[in-house]
Amino acid sequence: FFFFFTETPAAMQRQLVAAGVAVTGVAAALALRRLVVARRAAALLNKLQLKTPVPPDVEISQAVKLTPIKELFDRKFGLREGELFAHGTYKGKLSLSVYERLKHQPDGNYVVVCGINPTPLGEGKSTTTIGLSQALGAHLGQQVMTCIRQPSMGPTFGIKGGAAGGGYAQCAPMEEFNLHMTGDIHAITAANNLFAAAIDTRYLHEQTASTNFLWNKLCPADGSGRRTFELSMRPRLDKLGIFKANPDDLTASEIERFVRLDIDPDSITWKRVTDTNDRYLRGVSVGTSPSEVNKKTGESLGRESGFAITVASEIMAVLALATDLSDLRARLGRMIACTSRAGEPLTADDFGITGALTVLMMDALMPTTMQTLEGTPALVHCGPFANIAHGNSSVVADRLALKLVGPQGYVLTEAGFGSDMGGEKFFNIKCLYSKLRPSCAVLVCTVRALKLHSNEAPPVVPGAALAAEYREERLGLVAKGAANMLAHIQNVRKHGVQVVVAINRFHTDTDAEVETVARVAREGGAFDAVAADHFAKGGAGAVELGRAVMAACAATSPREFRHIYDAKAQGVKDKIETIVREVYGGAGAKYSPAAEARIARYEADPALRSLPICMSKTQYSLSDDPKALGAPSGFTVTVKDAYVSAGAGFIVVSLGTISFIPGLPVKPAYYKIDVDLSSGSPRVVGLS
Predict the structure, then answer these.
(1) Residues 400, 94 contacting (CB under 8 angstroms)
(2) Is 377:146 a contact under the CB 8 Å cutoff?
(3) In sequence order, which ranges of 181-227 are alpha helices (DSSP H)?
(4) In degrees, to the nearest 5, what angle opens at C-alpha 546 toward C-alphas 619 and 173?
């Protein structure tokens, strides 16, 4: 046995004897080795050097010496060979085989972090999630894993900036977090656009070729005259009730039905995607080339379409809700892209593309492993928006994390925007499919947002200086605006989950304002309410928040969790109006003629009627009116449209006009982003 020691063998031997370890032979050597490994592990913990004022986020991230990701996860969780695949030094991919190995181990405590209705500046929910993780893991000695969404690069270069947290509470390296990471979003882009190309190409060929030509191309005879079906064709055949193994046994009518999807071009809802804020792609003409025409009639086969941002693709939601590779494949196959002229939904299975999409998405199903600035592990996976999708990181990441931390550990998972948005969808969509039960919820609020919700303070405008009301003590505004926070506390409590309010403290907040928020929150049903200063102090600034979360988890049982509606038993309208009444505080809903027609079709289909509801609305208000701040009541929302995301497994209900691809402001964030070459080693600057 050969070991390298940082202390003298005699000193280490005295420590081992004091600990009751027999220092003899092999046992002594192994004990010495374990002590050395433990000492080295402790020395590897990432250390913060706090500065005032707080430097830019990217400078903080680059100043911290991080632990190599494989070393960090091996040390924390004892991973086996082949369970983590490194992508460079500080990020990697976690194999789903870890879940199979640990599936019989009890889960840890499951904590969801959501918020109140935010200002346009955001209230630091991601920062609070990471600060809490650093408090639990680096300061309170708990086993913890943080599960957060991967940000889209569109907002990173636009107006919002990145989503790695901020200040001394960040996921790191923040450049890698906010940019390409391990390529999952690029994989979604490729898969989504392959499907889009398949749809348009199939329409072109069906309009320009005979049935016999299509049949000979789809099922060509080999040299001996024998035809075979591809495995990818089987779902289409099964759907048509054609259970013949030999293509030559099909009748002329069966061949016609098999090769002709008879796509209605006006029904195509599947859009191409890009991970860029590009408003000029909201509406585009496709197929305008001279080659995309019916040569017999001269008719153009082009159409009007548009792009969405990649994270709005249904494939993103599918990836986030899939439980394993088999489930991923099944969900991809169920995605509806358009209908036939007879009104029959056409899915990825009908196009024979499900297998190819699954191959493109295989590696993306594995969560990306990263770390916080203080060395607590994180799983970064998926990034569906909460105002147009379900707004949560993946089921796969949460399930893996709950097994890895063990029954005494903590998994923090972030839900987008408020408890009325990502929070409600976490409870009623994500938990429905994952069958996981939360132990506690953290509700993030700020004094600034509560002042806005008083309806008596000026608007908060990105890029503009905050009005005096936000920079000076105004207890009356805080108390009045707290109505919004109280509504969110009650939303979470209706699901049987305890709430800890995290008051994300800014330097302009006074002690009296913070104490007012805490008092009102406790009186309004919160388990506890704690101020946190993790932005300026890292995990040390969120220790009391960590203790409150630990106490809340210990004081309650996940068995108390309940969904706000019964997805299978209740009708579509009943589920919509339950959300409006119980979560938003409204009186009910009215429906446009288009929404009425679609919902009637969904009600008539038992498979669609039983799906949960994914409300698409503004994040700034509990209602569908972004200007209705505070805690409005008695209002009626307007359902403008509805559509099925059959692969993801929910019905999207639109309460307003929401763009699926953002635009750029006059001065986008990219003006500040560059590479500094002056230090010899290239260094990214300007990311926020």
Answers:
(1) yes
(2) yes
(3) 184-208, 211-218
(4) 70
11 has a pLDDT exceeding 60: no
C-alpha 116: how far from its chain's center? 18
- Flag whether pLDDT at 356 surpasses 50: yes
pLDDT digits (tens, 9 = 90+) for 484-508: 999 999 999 999 999 999 999 999 9
* CA–CA distance, 548 with 384 (Å, rounded to integer): 29
- The tally of CA atoms less than 13 A away on the side-chain side of residue 663 is 10
Indicate yes or no: pTM above 0.85: yes
* Two tokens, residue 189: 């882009």
Q: Which conformational region is residue 16 in: left (phi greater than 0), alpha (psi within -120 to 50 degrees), or beta?
A: alpha
CA distances from 132 to 53, 73, 402 (A): 21, 19, 17
Structural tokens at position 232: 């990818």
Q: Which two tokens stand for residue 93?
A: 């991919």
What mean pLDDT comes out for the span 565-574? 98
Closest CA to 130 of 332, 370, 293: 370
Q: Are 401 and 133 a contacting pair, CB within 8 Å?
A: no
Of 311, 317, 303, residue with least CA distance to 277: 311
- In whole angstroms, give the CA distance from residue 230 to residue 454: 62
Distance CA 549, CA 193 (A): 43
Distance CA 508, CA 516 (A): 15
Residue reference for tokens 């408003």: 279
**pLDDT class for 28, splitting at 50, 70, 90?**
low
Report whether 661 contacts 307 (CB < 8 A): yes
